[in-house]
C-alpha cells in the first residue's frame, strides 16, 4: 500500500471506529435514557444522536457523493436548539436513520481513491481551491471524525 492509500485507510478506520462505538452507545440506551440531558441545562442524548445523524447526512452532498437522505433532520437537530422542535424522532426511528446514513456514507467512502479524497469539497469554489488545496474531502473527513468523537465523549460522560 502506498503512503497516500495508507493515510486514507487510517482515516477511514478512525471514522468507522467512531461510528461503531457511537452506534453501540446510543443503540443500547432506552427511550428514557435518550431523553436525559448530558448535564443540567444541556442537550439531551437523543438530540446529540440526531445532531450527529444530520451532520453525517450532510456529508453526502458536501463530499459530492449524492443527495441527502434526510434533510428534514436539519430543522430539528442543526438549525434549532434542543427542545425547539416537538418532532424529535424516537430512538428506534433515529437508529434506522443513523444506520441508513452511515451505510450510505461507508459505501460511498469505500469507492473513493486517494486521488478522489484530495479533490475539493462542494463548499469551496474551484478558484479558492487552487489557493487552498487543503480544503479537500480528506480534511472534511478528519474534521467530521473529530466532531463525532467529541459528541461521543459528551454522551459517554452523561452515562455516569
Automatic annotation (TrEMBL):
Residues 20-155 form the DinB-like domain. Signal peptide: none annotated. InterPro entries: DinB-like, DinB/YfiT-like. It holds the Pfam family DinB_2. It comes from the Bacteria. This is DinB family protein.
Amino acid at each position: 500500500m502506498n503512503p497516500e492509500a495508507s493515510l486514507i485507510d487510517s482515516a477511514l478506520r478512525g471514522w468507522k471506529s467512531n461510528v461503531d462505538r457511537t452506534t453501540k452507545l446510543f443503540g443500547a440506551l432506552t427511550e428514557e435514557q435518550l431523553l436525559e440531558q448530558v448535564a443540567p441545562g444541556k442537550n439531551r442524548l437523543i438530540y446529540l444522536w440526531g445532531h450527529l445523524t444530520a451532520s453525517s447526512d450532510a456529508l453526502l452532498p458536501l463530499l459530492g457523493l449524492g443527495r441527502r437522505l434526510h434533510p428534514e433532520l436539519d430543522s430539528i437537530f442543526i438549525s434549532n436548539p434542543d427542545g425547539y422542535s416537538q418532532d424529535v424522532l424516537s430512538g428506534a426511528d433515529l437508529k434506522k436513520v443513523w444506520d441508513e446514513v452511515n451505510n450510505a456514507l461507508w459505501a460511498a467512502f469505500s469507492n473513493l481513491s486517494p486521488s478522489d479524497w484530495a479533490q475539493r469539497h462542494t463548499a469551496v469554489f474551484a478558484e479558492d481551491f487552487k489557493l487552498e488545496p487543503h480544503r479537500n474531502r480528506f480534511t472534511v473527513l478528519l474534521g467530521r471524525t473529530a466532531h463525532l468523537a467529541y459528541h461521543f465523549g459528551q454522551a459517554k460522560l452523561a452515562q455516569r
